[in-house]
Specification:
single chain, mainly alpha, Endonuclease III, domain 1, two-stranded parallel ribbon, metal-binding, Tag, DNA damage, zinc, DNA-3-methyladenine glycosylase I
Length: about 190
C-alpha cells in the first residue's frame, strides 16, 4: 500500500526521503539548527529541491556547517566559496552565512544555546497545525514575523518571515504535514 505524503515532495526520491525522515521532526541540536538556517538562507528565492540536491556540497564547502569555523572565514575563504560551482554562489548569501554564524554564537552566549532561544517562542513545544491540503499551509505567520524581526534585530541577514517559517517547518517548531500524511502523527 502506498503511503500518503504531503504532495509537495512529489515522486522525487531525495524529496521523499527528506519528507519522510527530516521535515517537521523537532530539532533541539544547535549544529542542526544552524545547518537548516544556512540551507534556508540559500533557498530564499529558489526551490527547496535545488538546495537538497546541493546539500552535501554545502556541507563540504562550509566545513560541515561548523558555525565556529564559519565565523572566522576570511576574504580568501569567501573567494573560494564564490568560485565553488557546487553551491549557490550568491555573494550576499555567503556573506550573510558568515555574519549569521557570528550572530548565532552571540545568541548562544545570551541564552545558553540557540535551541533555548528559538524554542522559547513556543514554550519548547511544537505547534501542531491541522492542514488538510497544501493550500492550508501559510508561507508566514504572526510568529514567524516576530522571530524574523527579533533575529534581524540581533544582526541576522536573509531571515525574512518566509525563510523563518520554512525553518520552523523544517526543524519541527511547527508541524505542517497535512493531516492525511503518514508523518503527521509521527512527528
Amino acid at each position: 500500500m502506498n503511503k500518503i505524503r504531503c504532495n509537495w515532495c512529489g515522486n522525487d526520491p531525495l524529496y521523499m526521503e527528506y519528507h519522510d525522515t527530516e521535515w517537521g521532526v523537532p530539532v533541539y541540536d544547535d549544529a542542526k539548527l544552524f545547518e537548516f538556517l544556512i540551507l534556508e538562507t540559500f533557498q530564499a528565492g529558489l526551490s527547496w529541491i535545488t538546495i537538497l540536491r546541493k546539500r552535501e556540497n554545502f556541507r563540504v564547502a562550509f566545513d560541515n556547517f561548523n558555525y565556529k569555523k564559519i565565523a572566522t572565514y576570511n576574504e580568501d575563504k569567501f573567494d573560494e566559496l564564490i568560485q565553488n560551482a557546487g553551491i549557490i554562489r550568491n555573494k550576499l548569501k555567503i556573506k550573510a552565512t558568515i555574519s549569521n554564524a557570528i550572530a548565532f554564537m552571540e545568541v548562544q552566549k545570551e541564552f545558553g544555546s540557540f535551541s533555548n532561544y528559538i524554542w522559547k517562542f513556543t514554550n519548547g513545544k511544537p505547534i501542531k497545525n491541522k492542514p488538510k491540503s497544501l493550500e492550508d499551509v501559510p508561507a508566514t505567520t504572526e510568529l514567524s514575523d516576530i522571530i524574523s524581526k527579533d533575529l534581524k534585530k540581533r544582526g541576522f541577514k536573509f531571515v525574512g518571515s518566509t525563510v523563518i517559517y520554512a525553518h520552523m517547518q523544517a526543524t519541527g517548531i511547527v508541524n505542517d504535514h497535512i493531516t492525511d500524511c503518514f508523518r503527521y502523527h509521527e512527528v
